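DMT family transporter
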Amino acid sequence: MSKLRLDALPPVPSVLLASLSVQAGAAMAKGLFPAVGPSGAAGLRIGLSALMLLAVFRPSLGKLTSTQWRAIIPYGVVLGAMNLFFYLALARIPLGLCVTLEFMGPLLLAVSSSRRVLDFVWVLLAAAGIALIAPWNGNGLDLLGALFALVAGTCWAAYIVLGGRVSQVLPGTAAVATGMIFAALTVLPVTFAGGGLFNLTPTLLASGLALALLSSAIPFTLEMNALRKLPGRTFSVLMSLGPAMAALCGLVFLHEHLSFTQWLAVALVVIASGGATLTAKKPIPAVE
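Structure:
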């Protein structure tokens, strides 16, 4: 994977490819839920991703400073929690809606760090889209699933902030590989408590390897590359393309058909993201 030089890609393509890879992986993960459950799928994704990244990048853990450890550990914990709550939500609501609700975290982060009126307009447009699918609209959306998605979104916002800080003290590949260790330590106790991995077979393990590659190893490396070159608010709004990709992956791979209102919500979020991308200033390092 290091031969692909993922860290050499420009920041905007890095974010878009990361989002597409994540949503395809999420669709694959949902197909594993009947066999291993959402916590089991999360454990497979994070655990195998940690092994892959450690094998490829071989970070020098013994050489890390106390400052680097203080940045890496919370980053990894938030990373693990974000994935666990996302899968818990995905077990209850469609993929496209799960990702759209999850965006509430980055959306609030974008509001808090906004410096221009136009940026705030794009955020309000995305918020209107999210409001269309909120559970209080009586659309039958599972309340607990929606809550899990919002918690995952909160973790996502924290991941953006902490990832930006980590990228300032440690190279992207080493940061992702080391952070994934603590993500695995966060998720695996829940995975084993759920008992899903007791049903693991060679076929499921192979699916887990593909899931880890699509959902973690590739996208997190791409995201760390983008976070080193983009301000946190621009990264946040760019990631709102995720709902459209998720809805399409859910339709194609999971046969999840959304209503007109739900598609409209996704479209509003995508328009907001495109507008923010077109009007963004020259990227600068993300320092929070």
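Residues 7-279 form one domain.
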